[in-house]
Amino acid sequence: MAINKSQQELFGSEDTDNKPVTCLGMTFKNDEERRKYFTEELRKRLPELKKIEGFPIGEDEDILALSDPPYYTACPNPFIPDFIKEWEAEKREMYGEEEEEYHREPFAADVSEGKGNAIYNAHNYHTKVPHKAIMRYILHYTKPGDIVVDGFCGTGMTSVAAQMCGDISAVQELGYRILNDGHILDQDGNIISRFGPRQSIINDLSPAATFISYNYNYPSEVGSIKKEANKILWQVEKEYGWMYKTNHVIEGVSQFNNKGEPVKGEILYTVWSQVFICPYCTEQIVFWDVAVDRDEGKIHDTFGCPHCNAVVNKRGLEKCWETSFDEALSQTVKQVKYVPVLLCYRVDNERFLKRPDKKDIELINEIGKKPLSNWVPTNKIFEGDKTIEAIRLGFTNIHHFYTKRNLLLLSALFQKAKCNQLKFILTGMLTRTSKQARFLAKNFFHGGGGWVGTSLSGTLFFPSLSIEVSPIFTFKSLFDKHLNWSTK
């Protein structure tokens, strides 16, 4: 269960490192003291809560570690009645004992909201609904101080929407007008609601969903988060930054500084191409070399084999396989073969492209031999309609979704990140930094990012041309965006 920002401001302070905070009528020296107190209260109530059907399977300490009671618990939240009591008292104090017969006409208007909002894009999740669309319904059916309950909350956009009903710019962006007395008018000048945040209780059976919801709705102390992020990035770049370096080359000529040393660039992403076998001459075909048209910015359906000139298409080609030892599983695995075909790197904030050279290939081989020093998820992929693509390519376990380089760096970031808000950012970039990130030829050669950090909808799709995006580059970008929307 997560409490949105407006609710948190009623019961506690955003800047909670060393300042007193009030929660459910009790005052604590700081937020850490609040957390300790309610964690012990939750611990006492776990035996009774376990009797509830659907209680999550897990050890008590794991459930407590995931929780931040009373605002968020990774199990049924026993503090909800206390919040409702506080909210009702707060509502009476702010809006009086006003009694009215509840009646609302059905909301019959079409609702269409885009997915380009910074809040919406802060974290990936299936079935997400833009919070602006939900705001229209909440404003229509409720008034300030009312309690909105979402039992299948997903990423918690309902709670975000309830909070945003008290944000002037967010309401105005819907095309509504706010009068001085707090009434809200639609485009036709009709009174449709009253301005002010609504309270919310949100729930989901998915631990991932509740974690995302909690971080979307729980206020963060920006200063401490930024300090921790910079510290982690410094540590990770110091230990792993060498894995994302390449020699700067212009028109085939290596560049050197005034000391005679090779100029190094920071690799932002690497394009990997699947390798196939020609059915006519049995030679290997690098898909990138034969199918990508840079001038047109597209990928051809048919192309010629560079060895025998036979006209072929991807469907008619056989997959090329390679066998390697999987350190995490302590066994040999067989997977489709990919090779690096293009690097995008940065030197003094200017971007360059080049084909991987001998040094780059040697670097990748060296990284492949580096042992895993931190925990990585090795869960086996269950067989099903939506997972067959991954298994068919030999990606049978979670860690197979990442290159060795990104796996090493991501595991280091997760090991060092202690703050939930940083873990929120890290989990939000998992798909973007995986082998599922797709190369987009048209965008790449004609402006734009050049890739999309998700698989095809509803599948675990792995493209023939994937982009290995640097987690360092991704983390910096997402963290800056996170600060922009979380401080508004």
Structure characterization notes:
34% of the residues lie in helices and 19% in strands. With 488 residues, it is of the alpha+beta class. It folds into two domains: 5-219, no CATH class; 224-486, no CATH class. Strand 18 (321-326) and strand 19 (331-336) form a beta hairpin. Helix 5 (131-141) crosses helix 6. The model is unreliable at 5-16 (pLDDT under 50).
Strand content: 15-25%
Helical percentage: 25-40%
Largest sheet: 7 strands, antiparallel
Question: Averaged pLDDT, please?
Answer: 88
Broad structural category: alpha+beta
Kindly provide the radius of gyration, computed on alpha-carbon positions and rounded to a whole number of angstroms.
26 Å
Count of helix runs: 16
Number of strands: 24
Number of domains: 2
- How would you sum up the global shape? elongated
Alpha-carbon distance between the termini? 23 Å
Give the low-confidence spans: 5-16
Helices and strands in order:
Blueprint (H helix, E strand, L loop, with lengths): L4 H7 L9 E3 L2 E3 L2 H19 L10 H7 L13 H16 L35 H11 L5 E4 L6 H8 L3 H5 L4 E2 L4 E3 L5 E4 L4 E4 L4 H11 L4 H19 L4 E3 L1 E2 L2 E2 L9 E14 L6 E3 H5 E2 L4 E2 L2 E3 L6 E3 L4 E2 L1 E6 L4 E6 L1 E10 L2 E5 L3 H11 L19 H5 L11 H13 L3 H9 L9 E2 L1 H5 L5 E2 L12 E5 L1 H16 L2
Parallel strand pairs: 3-7
Antiparallel strand pairs: 1-2, 4-5, 5-6, 8-11, 9-10, 11-12, 11-17, 11-20, 11-24, 13-14, 15-16, 18-19, 20-21, 22-23
Helix pairs in contact: 5-6, 9-13, 9-16
